[in-house]
Amino acid sequence: MEITVQENLPFLNEITIHYGVQSATINNGLIDCGSAGTAAETDLLIDIGILEDDPRDQWLSLRGIGGVERVRQKVVDITVGNITIYDFPLQVGALGYGYDINGIIGFDLLVATKALIDYGNLVVTFSE
Question: Strand, helix or coil at 108?
Fold first, then answer.
């Protein structure tokens, strides 16, 4: 999968979030090896019912350079490249950090998909 670079930051496109029988595609997902968790911007997922209460939901605080943000952790299926990870914990919040970031591809997703990041060729390879 091709990495795009915006303001010297690495991004991926076409990350698909599946929730129930619906799905949404996220573009501008920041590759962030320093983020423990993966997150997505709430407004992009409202139409697939992501804000519905689920007994598996957890409220967490997302901490980073942008400060602290309260997020809801949902259990979803997520597809990157040709790999789908089932029952994956996704943090959902505003992600208002001053950049055009619709999601954060964190260390948890990079490990789950056995991601190999080739910065020389600006590609990420995922495997099972």
Answer: helix
Question: What does the pLDDT look like over 63-104, one tens digit per residue?
Answer: 766 677 788 999 999 999 999 999 999 999 887 666 788 999
The pTM of the full predicted model, rounded to 2 decimals, is 0.90
Q: How many domains are there within the chain?
A: 1
Domain of 35 in residue numbering reads as 4-125
The Cα-based distances of 70 to 6, 60, 94, 101 in angstroms read 26, 6, 9, 17
DSSP 33-85: TT-SSEEEEGGGTGGGTTTS--TT-EEEEEEETTEEEEEEEEEEEEEETTEEE
DSSP structure class, residue 3: P
